[in-house]
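Q: Predict the bound structure with zinc ion.
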Amino acid sequence: MKEIIPRPQSVIEAKKGGTFDMAKVDALDVDAKFALTTPVITSILEEGLGRKLPKEGKNVLKIGFAAELAPQSYRIETDENGIGIVAGDAAGALYAVQTLRVGTMMGTPQKNTLVPCGKVNDYPRYRWRGILLDEARHFFGEEEVKKLLDVMCMHKLNVLHWHLTDDQGWRIEIKKYPLLTEVGSSRPCSQIHGWLSTDVDDVPVSGYYTQEKIKEIVAYAAERGISVIPEIDMPAHLAAAMAAYPWLGCRELKRDPHYYFGGRIPTSQGVKDWNRSACIGKPSTMEFIKGVIDEICELFPAPYFHIGGDEAPKDEWKNCPACQELIRSLGLRNEKQLQGWFINEVAKYVRSKGRRLIGWNEVLEGDILDNDVVVQYWTPRRDPKVIKHVRKGGSVVISKHKYFYFDMPYAQYPLRNTYMFNPYFEGFISMYDNNVKGIEGTLWTEWISTPSKLEFQLFPRMEALAEVSWYGGPKNFKKFLGRLREYMPLLDMYGLNYAKEEIYRQPNPFTRVKTIRTWYGGNENVEYEKNDNKH
Ligand code: ACM
Ligand code: ZN
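A: Predicted complex:
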């Protein structure tokens, strides 16, 4: 077998050697406990082997349940007569089959179905291995999302963090508030030429998911062992909702969803209108938020609800009578605590629905955060409050900028950054291992408007993410690059547009600075244009 990505925890080949040829498998018997993933297990094997696999035959591949194995874990034992698999749950069973498929390159022209005799014993380093997909800035749609879910499953990733709302678009139908999508899902154009530019294109952006479509995609993900966690960003990054319902703001400004992403926003309309925070002082805001959460919880069975909570400006709250009155009546010290109080209120509400809240690390700002709230650590600067949260027993998901912001240019954050990630570098010493729930790579899409560029930014970073979040063991970057080269046919099988090696490897310092300057100075496609884009 090829060395697979992500690497299994333990592979022991039999001393006497020998192989079993997967091509001989003519039947598949999966334990009834694994019903959720059985259709996908079956289709991977049937497509890979090129034939139907009934339950009975001469060479049965049996996938059984083993109570002693933890969730997501599995074992494979191979001898010359066949292969036996046991798993701890439906996801583990699926991962076992992915290991066989990737190890034999099944489905690619490079396939070699000989499995060496021996034992694989595998389980994840982190429970939460995720990708954030931002469909608010640009909308990619069902087909691309399903493709990503298929590939995430091959990489043993198990969380899709779906960023569905932001200043530039609201992408999920909420029946109680229909204007969210009628008004909030369309904008006439988008900022181009990087963060510092004031240029816009002339391409309208629109699109959203109906509730029916959301349910279908969530079910599709579940069959692949993937939990979909919705993010409805608040109290800031809410301009698309404020375009639909201006009463959500402290000042009732009539504004369109934004088409600037940041940087030097023109203020011709006389007020700062980018990334405003919703008014927390007016009861109608909390009523709105509860109404949205009610519908979201019906659509997403995941045990988490992501509130965002990042980059919330406090300036309007300072001048708003309703917000100031609330601060006074609650005995809060300042606007930062108002943010903290708001997050805790939403945490209470989602808890009443059996969900747990997660938010970006700014939710710690007011120093009053409920310790039950999971913190997602992203900020480029070090945030000592995150370590404090963990010391008090709180949980984190790590998405630190320099390793896991996959929207950034490769020149700035080459593949090596992601691969070399070690939680210790960020202050998570081993005594906090249990508090680190997992790792997530983020794909923000301010500068990504096509599936092709989305894939270019993501691959092969997803492989490095899988390696650090599933395997998490000793590293050898040079060997990893070699393994990646052999892995690429599996990405070709999905028709993915991945970055070429000269782009994702660390460039020389001169090229590096030049590329970063070009990227920020007006051409955010400088690397993408150098790749031979397939679609
Ligand atoms: C973030 O990048 N504002 C979470
Ligand atoms: Zn207010």
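A: Residues 130-503 form a domain with the TIM Barrel fold (CATH 3.20.20.80).
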